[in-house]
Write a structure and sequence with these properties.
Blueprint: E1 5-10, H1 21-41, H2 43-50, H3 56-68, H4 73-82, H5 84-89, H6 93-104, E2 108-112, H7 117-127, E3 131-133, E4 137-139, E5 145-149, H8 157-166, E6 173-179, H9 185-190, E7 193-196
Parallel strand pairs: 1-2, 1-6, 2-3, 6-7
Antiparallel strand pairs: 4-5
């Protein structure tokens, strides 16, 4: 009898980390003053989002465009790589240890996140993840960040979709899933065994 493969899928923000890396990366790239000024400028939109009257995914893209539209992609990617040290400061050791347990047992580990691969991949691949599925950004022919996303925001049902794109034979593997928010709900429900991660931090997690 063929033994089923085992796959473990981890969310990133608030699961492998204790805080939201998307927000932390903006602050890292622009500094505290510009960070708060940019969010103050978008306060009306953010209030509507919190009231459920504006799409969180659209709000996220508008924030991204405000801070990074027109950047050279090479600069953006380089900053993502140097952000590795900042991620180390917000490690969630308990969940990272669980990830390492899966890797030690020979399980295939993926990270699926609404954040961006430019800073996720350097860190996650170093930890032993096989691949990262995330929200990808659009870059024009001259190498400039357009401010738009090339893929759908990788949250909710999109996480399940992205997993099935890379692992379509669902009946052939046992699936563990780890997440911490409503953006992980569908993925957790899709798994054979799921873990809802909680932390003591009060930082908001983007969806």
């Amino acid at each position: 009898m063929k033994t089923a493969r085992t796959i473990a899928v981890f969310d990133f923000d608030g699961t492998l980390t204790t805080r939201d890396s998307f927000l932390a990366f903006i602050r890292y790239a622009h500094g505290t003053w510009r960070y708060y000024a940019g969010f103050a400028l978008h306060a009306p939109m953010l209030i509507l989002m919190l009231m459920g009257l504006y799409s969180g995914s659209k709000a996220k893209q508008r924030i991204f465009a405000h801070f990074f539209k027109g950047w050279q992609y090479s600069r953006f990617k380089s900053l993502g790589q140097s952000f590795y040290a900042e991620i180390e400061k917000i490690r969630n050791e308990k969940v990272i240890n669980k990830m390492q347990e899966h890797i030690t047992k020979g399980h295939t580990v993926y990270v699926i996140s609404a954040s961006l691969p430019e800073w996720l991949e350097p860190w996650c691949l170093k930890q032993g993840a096989k691949a990262v599925m995330a929200t990808e950004i659009e870059v024009d022919e001259s190498g400039l960040v357009t401010g738009r996303f090339k893929t759908k925001n990788c949250s909710g049902q999109e996480k399940v979709k992205r997993l099935l794109e890379i692992e379509p034979d669902r009946e052939e593997y046992f699936l563990y899933a780890y997440g911490n928010s409503t953006g992980d709900k569908q993925l957790l429900s899709f798994a054979d065994q799921s873990t809802l991660v909680t932390t003591s931090k009060s930082d908001e997690k983007h969806q």
